[in-house]
């Protein structure tokens, strides 16, 4: 290498070196460039080129963002995937039992039933596609007690409409909680319904208590309990699933929500029942509503409610869940006795709750202004209270239904605030004579093909209520031989209630249920069960029809 005579002294002192250890150039335009200088110039040129490429690439990206997305990058709506239909399950409460010993604890012990007490279950499973689903009545967590129908083969092929048929169980005696279950057919959930009835003619639990076999749920409301002196309320929690359930209770009384130690974290093992004495959680409550929520397995909940006025039996009932809080609640199958007789009875000490009444529970933070309408056989009846009341937030308000002519009624309550409701029914007008009590839970609006089980014994009535305008009801009897009879039709004027007496037999076979459908305006239904010569009474709201094929949206991604 030779030295450049024109290179400044500062450069020779090393003002900067490139990665190869060569001195940087101050003037890139010098004609005489050494080898190291050439490499430096090439590097600079390459860097400039890289900047240009990046700038061009950025332009491409920016331009690309303005172009339509490629098909593979567009958002796609989630596809609807069919959910496999599961087994239809109804949990039937067991016999009513007397508490033994103190009620202070929440885990009770029971004494034996009376000599005359008897409990039975009646049910029906509707056939579909020409076959009856595999179905059975079994003990909770135990072996099948009755096989209703064997698992069928393939469903009938499409063609002419198949005649309806059913599998039935009629008046099967049970001594514990039982489960009516029916398998899905052709990926359709089976339509099934069951009802239990308890009857006793002696002892402290004289009377009758009927209840639907309940579909388990993770959230449900029960209204109508009482824990004052002489009133016993036992919450029965049954787990018919294969998963443990952890249950939490929310309690509401006449003075507000009740914070009760021991009401949370109640474990109910699979295939078992747990009983909770509500007086141990909320003593001295004239009105008590319970919200039952569970995590894990769903629960079937019912409250065994009994009344003892001194030494006189005042009735027994199973309180079952009504509909969830809503701005309108409807209860039908409400039987009201003679107004003068009720007034004379309730004036006696200890008989204040021996009258019909509507109980409204407002679980939210706002008061509810509620309008109550009572629809009878020939139209709406005026209530002595005027029909408009204010129900306090987070508490229970009772509305008397006494003072109207005797008969069957539909109770409709509406508000701009969601609430829960149930109606008390009483029978028996003689002091110091056995009487009975029942609670009509709020029911669902009728649609198509509800299966309705009818308990055996007593006088049974199908009670229908239409609210605003005319509704048409079709009902077809199900007989114990598995036949579904030709349907009959009832046309119900708006704002009225109609009752149809259930015959013991149809064409020589015992009637065990009905297939009911409704069209037109909103209509509601219940089975009202009474006993000739006795004060027995029970009311069972119609259950929801089986759901059709269900789908859920499924999105794939990462």
Notes on the structure:
By secondary structure, the chain is mainly beta. It has one domain. It contains 3 helices and 38 strands. The strands form 9 sheets. Strands 21, 22, 23, 24, 25, 26, 27 and 28 form an 8-stranded antiparallel sheet that branches. Strands 12, 14, 15, 16 and 18 form a 5-stranded antiparallel sheet that branches. The longest helix has 31 residues, at 35-65. The radius of gyration is 36 Å and the shape is globular. The model is unreliable at 1-45, 47-69 and 156-160 (pLDDT under 50).
Q: Residue share in helices?
A: under 10%
Largest β sheet strand count, sense and barrel closure: 8 strands, antiparallel
Number of strands: 38
Average pLDDT: 85
Coarse structural class: mainly beta
* N- and C-termini, Cα separation: 63 Å
Q: What amount of the residues lies in strands? A: over 45%
Low-confidence stretches: 1-45, 47-69, 156-160
**Number of structural units classed as domains:** 1
Overall shape: globular
Rg (C-alpha, Å): 36 Å
- How many distinct helices? 3
